Amino acid sequence: MFADRARIIIKSGKGGDGHVSFRREKYVPAGGPDGGDGGKGGDVVFVIDDGLNTLADYRSRRKFAAEPGEDGSKRNCHGKDGADLILKVPEGTVVKDAESGKVIADISGENRRVVVLRGGRGGQGNQHYATATMQAPKYAQPGQDATEAEVVLELKVIADVGLVGFPNVGKSTFLARVTNARPKIANYHFTTLQPNLGVVDMEDGDGFVIADIPGLIEGASEGVGLGHEFLRHIERTKVMIHMVDAAGTEGRDPIADIRAINDELLKYNPMLLEKPQVIAANKMDAVYGDENEIISALRAEFEEKDGVKVFPISAVSGRGVRELLFYVRELLSQCPKEAVIYEPEFDPSKKDEDDGNFTVTIDKYGTFVVEGQKIEKMLGYTNLESEKGFMFFQNFLKDQGINDKLVEMGIEEGDTVQLCGYEFEYYE
């Protein structure tokens, strides 16, 4: 099956730890600190590869991680930065947060290279912590943790025109006639199981891209059949051509088919019905004359009521196709020139950044238990065994209002406080 959706786990590189060391050279009896900084962790970067048209590379492998930064070393040596993880995807790929469904990045148009996760910064070596009163610091900063996220990749075809209709109405035949595409064509349902793109070259050179969206069925907006896989490709198109069987060879009601497809589009995304539409009444080569009861009914239902123009055509002989294409180009000229690009709604690198919430509870042993994501993150890069690190920790509790909350809950000197597995004796 056409691979246009994948769910993967991505992880940036952890920052390298700062180093603790001191100069040990001949004739330098009391050398100062010379611990180097850790290297930055690698980023996770999505890049457009024009040679790709599916997300098949991400169907068999689920986890991808960038390189961590190298730890610092003695003699002020800086750790090597971790290599970025480059993930190649076809143009039109949208990266979404798997949990919330929010857009992280749209790899389309000018967004050919997007950093989705940033690597952790490297920790500082002990040389940065020397002061007049602490000339031999035995503390270095740990590297920043890596960021991990589960994301969904969705490929949404980028085309000017979307060709929609129920199966076996001649969409693939039409695409083969008017473009350079060579879709698979046969007289049975669901020949097309993936979107086919082709370029329409007009006589004056001002052409456009058209996509044959695989046959839709009722219930597609609810995921029936391959509904969601197909509907997402219509979102980027600017104009829609509804193709129906005007000869009645399938025994279907073309008016009911168009209404059914529009109903599925409405349920999936109401914005889709705001796009200009045109009806291509196909298979006129099987009809005697220029008009029949199906064409008349289509004109009465859609041209007169909705203002949607109907073009009788034959994808086999080419009859009426030229007039249809020129009308579609006229509709396109009235649409915005810019491609539909989805704006970012979520940054996984910052998901915990603003979460300063914490909770304080008292367990059955009388221990004050403090929990919160920001506290966990702070403890991850703080060395509590060093004097400076512990002072930083005390100031953090004060600045975040945790001390005030403990006092409010009745803490007294000598009581035990537990934070993320660490236990401390409280004193003012």
Overview of the molecule:
The protein has 428 residues and is of the alpha/beta class. It has 8 helices and 18 strands. A 6-stranded mixed sheet has the order 10-11-9-12-13-14, with helices on both faces. The chain has a 5-stranded mixed sheet with strand order 3-1-8-5-6, with no helix packed on it. The radius of gyration is 31 Å and the shape is elongated.
Percent of residues in β-strands: 15-25%
Please provide the ordered H/E string of secondary-structure elements.
EEEEEEEEEHEEHEHEHEHEEHHHEE
Unreliable stretches, pLDDT < 50, 5 or more residues?
A: 183-192, 218-227
How big is the Rg? 31 Å
Neighbour order of strands in the largest sheet: 10-11-9-12-13-14
Q: Count of DSSP helices?
A: 8
The overall pLDDT average reads 79
Class per helix and strand makeup: alpha/beta
Which shape, going by the Cα principal axes? elongated
How much helix is in the residues? 10-25%
Q: Main sheet?
A: 6 strands, mixed
Total number of β-strand segments?
18
Distance linking N and C termini: 66 Å
